[in-house]
Specification:
The complex is a heterodimer of chains A (about 70) and B (about 650). With about 70 residues, chain A is mainly alpha-helical. Chain A contains 4 helices and no strands. Helix content of chain B is about 65%, strand content about 5%. In chain B, β6 and β7 form a beta hairpin. The chains are: A mainly alpha (about 70), B mainly alpha (about 650).
């Protein structure tokens, strides 16, 4: 998986940097897990869906407004 | 003509602020820019206070003249006592290198584009829509419009109920809070430095076209302040710029940037003061302490909670000064520093508290001040009883403060709004910035990185100092902690996590900006924008109960009995003369209507007795509007004359 990742990241110029960088440690793992937990807690709130839908409606209005 | 005057006035203040800043030797370009912005703001506040309170001639020619005089005087002083001619002292080669480095960052480019779009949208909305936030049409702009018309800063006429101590002291805090929210009161007791900036945006133009953009420059100033803070922690320009721009991508910042509220100004001034505090620690220069004090004065005069912050800033200056000069510290040094910082802070923000003390015998009226069991200043009630209990969401009342903070950060409210309570910081804050604060704190403590630990402690201390810190609009300053912690990690994580984090920041910035759009729909903004330009008034768009104001021709004398929203009565060009008409008995009320030669009288249909009283008015009246909340009567003044 790491090789695959290196292949893709090479495309945006960081592949070499990754090879030479320090190892992925427990600190990074815990940080990513905490982001995952925070993200799932945030999007688990039902109001996020309402906000998202509402924003879509507003975008439609905006499109109509801009296109006359 | 108005636009030209406004432009000239701003140029004058800008150059005055640069000339004053030349005498304050700060070390970095971003600190120098912040110094110009803080001093310019301070100059506007002080010149308006001088003209409005001392001279009592607060009109645009006098305001222009006094600022031009200041510019002239400081130019003469600077010529006599030489100062460095190249203020910013930019190293062109370094600047080129920094710019080239900045444009290499895809994340910075994405944030930059989002920020530019946001500023453009906010500016467009600010110019094309009238003010419609509750607090601004209730008290912020009511005070501003009244000062503008009178040419002075004065106590507005308050409803008669506040003249009867025996009645108000017999009320429960719920009854008091109700009367306070309906019967205008706050414009006479709140500190109003930020409202003076709103007045600046009206006085030269003669209308309120851009008054709703009062806070936008402060939002942009927040970007610079965060950049500057991040640089002091040793972060590179690129990362510091990312931290700064992340501040703009926060729903409450985006939304409040198009208002004449005060929360952004307050929050950004706190971040700026923190930046100068860190500068004072790092460079040990008295000029940084001076800038903390000036900024702290503006904080004090912007919001009542500024009292706690300004005391805290002075204490921190004293602690840092002691730390920097442990060996030669003396009582004399301590006394001098307390006197200078205290008096300068009071000069820039103390007026409103002195005014309260003069009129009510309590600098923070209407709040009771108690130390232990001893009442130091008497008032109408506690902050909790008069404000918080009635503004706290019901489910928050019985929960712990920590639970409430987390609930607000998880955004359990489906739409954003100017006054939002259960949301406001967006997805980026909760998902990326909050975990980053925790992990950065861990690094700071584990590796004992002193500047980082002090920075984190400052902001945690500020957060704990702010009452009701679950309410996001009260704690705008804490965003700096989140954005700087995030970029600190960007600098210290391994490359894989760094890439993941960068992608997350970019994606969530787009998402947060997009979801903030829910705010636009909630306030029917698309409807308002679809109206013809001349119909985009407060009555023509958001509050139809004020549509009648547009229909009566200009320069009218409008009277109102105690009611919440007064500002719409002035009209966008502020050409109606608006008077509070109140009395405890009917005949006195009629006398006041006649004394002020009122042509239109309006009142709330369900508040007190005015609806019954008007029926027996001894003159020719005609009901011209019977709306959802208001009734309006036209009074024929010629009829009264003919009768006599």
């Amino acid at each position: 998986m790491m090789d695959e990742l290196l292949k893709y990241t090479k495309l945006i110029g960081i592949g070499e940097k990754m090879k030479n960088d320090r190892k992925f440690s427990i600190f990074e793992l815990l940080f990513l897990i905490s982001i995952l937990v925070a993200g799932s807690s945030y999007f688990a709130v039902p109001e996020q869906h309402k906000r998202y839908e509402h924003a879509l409606t507003v975008l439609k209005h905006a499109k109509n407004f801009l296109l006359g | 003509m108005g636009i030209l005057l406004f432009f000239i006035a701003n140029i004058i203040v800008f150059f005055s602020a640069i000339e004053i800043s030349r005498r304050i030797r700060l070390n970095t370009v971003s600190d120098k820019i912040l110094s110009v912005l803080v001093i310019g703001t301070g100059q506007i506040i002080l010149t308006e206070l001088f003209l409005g309170v001392v001279i009592k001639r607060l009109y645009y020619p006098e305001l222009l003249l006094i600022n031009a005089l200041i510019l002239g005087i400081i130019l003469i002083i600077n010529k006599k006592y030489k100062v460095e001619s190249n203020y910013l002292n930019l190293d062109k080669a370094k600047l080129k290198r920094v710019v080239l480095d900045l444009i290499k960052s895809p994340l910075l480019i994405i944030l930059g584009v989002i920020s530019l779009v946001l500023v453009a949208v906010i500016t467009y909305l600010g110019i094309n829509l009238p003010p419609y936030g509750w607090d601004e049409i209730w008290y912020h702009l009511t005070a501003v419009a009244s000062w503008y018309q009178a040419g002075k800063i004065f106590m507005l006429t308050v409803p008669d109920i506040w003249n009867h101590a025996e009645i108000i002291h017999s009320m429960t805090s719920a009854q008091l809070a109700y009367h306070m929210s309906v019967a205008g009161f706050w414009y006479n007791v709140y500190p109003m430095n930020s409202e003076l900036i709103s007045l600046w945006n009206i006085i030269f133009l003669g209308n309120d076209t851009i008054v709703d953009l009062t806070q936008l420059p402060f939002s942009i100033m927040g970007v610079v302040a965060i950049y500057s803070l991040a640089r002091k922690l040793g972060l590179r320009e690129r990362l510091s710029a990312i931290a700064g721009l992340m501040f703009l991508v926060t729903p409450i910042v985006i939304i409040q940037s198009k208002t004449a509220y005060v929360d952004i100004t307050f929050g950004v001034m706190i971040i700026t003061a923190a930046n100068f505090l860190m500068g004072f620690m790092k460079y040990k220069s008295k000029y940084y302490a001076l800038m903390v004090t000036i900024t702290s004065g503006i904080v004090l005069g912007t919001k009542s909670s500024g009292v706690a912050f300004s005391i805290l800033f002075i204490l921190l200056i004293l602690v840092i000064d002691y730390w920097n000069n442990k060996d030669e510290y003396s009582i004399k040094r301590f006394s001098a520093l307390v006197s200078i910082t205290g008096s300068l802070t009071l000069l820039l923000g103390g007026f409103w508290y002195l005014r309260n003390f003069y009129y009510f015998g309590n600098p923070i009226y209407p709040y009771i001040v108690k130390i232990g069991g001893l009442t130091i200043f008497n008032g109408l009630g506690t902050v909790d009883g008069l404000i918080m209990m009635h503004n706290t969401p019901r489910e928050y009342i019985k929960s712990s403060n920590l639970t409430n903070i987390i609930s607000s950060w998880l955004e359990k409210e489906p739409y954003y709004s100017v006054d939002i309570r259960k949301a406001g910081f967006g997805a980026l804050w909760m998902i990326v910035e909050v975990p980053s604060i925790i992990f950065t704190t861990y690094i700071a403590v584990k590796k004992r990185i002193k500047p980082l630990m002090i920075f984190l402690s400052f902001f945690i201390l500020f957060f704990l100092t702010q009452p009701a810190n679950w309410w996001t609009r009260y704690t705008v300053f804490i965003i700096a902690l989140g954005t700087i912690s995030t970029v600190y990690l960007l600098d210290h994580l391994n490359i894989f996590t760094k890439v993941v984090l960068s992608i997350l920041i970019a994606g969530l910035s787009v998402y947060t900006t997009f979801s903030t759009l829910s705010y636009l729909g909630m306030n029917d903004i698309s409807y308002a924008l679809s109206r013809p330009t001349n119909e985009r008034t407060i009555g023509g768009t958001f509050y139809s109960d004020f549509l009648w104001v547009d229909k009566v021709s200009k320069d009218k004398r409008i009277g109102y009995a105690p009611m919440t929203f007064v500002y719409p009565l002035f009209s966008p060009k502020l050409d109606n003369k608006v008077y509070m008409i109140d009395a405890d008995i009917k005949d006195k009320w009629f006398e006041k209507i006649d004394e002020k030669r009122i042509e239109y009288i309006t009142f709330l249909k369900n508040y007190m007795y005015y609806k019954d009283w008007i029926k027996s008015y001894p003159g020719h009246i005609e009901k011209i509007y019977d709306g959802r909340t208001l009734e309006v009567y036209k009074i024929d003044r010629n009829w009264r004359k003919n009768e006599k």
